[in-house]
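Meet the record:
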Amino acid sequence: MKTILCILTALVSLATAALAGPQTFDFKDPKGVNNAVFKLDATLESINGSANGISGTIIFDPENPAATKGRIVVATASLHVPNPMMKQHLHSALWLDVAKYPEIVFETLELKNVKTTGDTTTADVAGKFTVKGVTQTITAPAKLTYLKDKLGQRVPNQKGDLIVIRATFTIKRTDYGINPSAPQDKVADEINLTLSIAGAAPRP
């Protein structure tokens, strides 16, 4: 009897070890719900828009969130503002130059001040942020929520886990050569960015 219990304990330990460890989460959302929101709030005008062309992967270990690494990509052509003329300007060479620079990229370097409570981890995420061919190192506060076995609630008939990332941070338009000569009373230099995205780690 004692031998059987030892064998069962060993099998459980092996199964647990097999399930533990880093997972790769894919942020190309088949539902098209993932989005980034941007706002330029100048004295005379406020420009608000969004983007949903999001992809990339994050490697996340529930047992070691501080080791999180990954790369999130936003297709510049997916950036949208309600005014058609303003959208045309936004995509032009003077602004984002969508034809030459098709991607906005954030690549993680490290996580600082990591705190985990239950399924939620908060951290200051340092990374390389590239817009219009210019790369700057920035740090953004982020919240990561790990949702084990919840993929099926977002994508029917699909087993697996989810991770939801929310982050809000600010960059300067002039730091990235985005129409630096634009009057700042009409086009704010500060761009406020809000990211709300979910990544999937499917299982057979």
User: Anything to note?
Assistant: The chain has one domain: 21-203. Residues 116 and 122 are 6 Å apart (CA to CA).
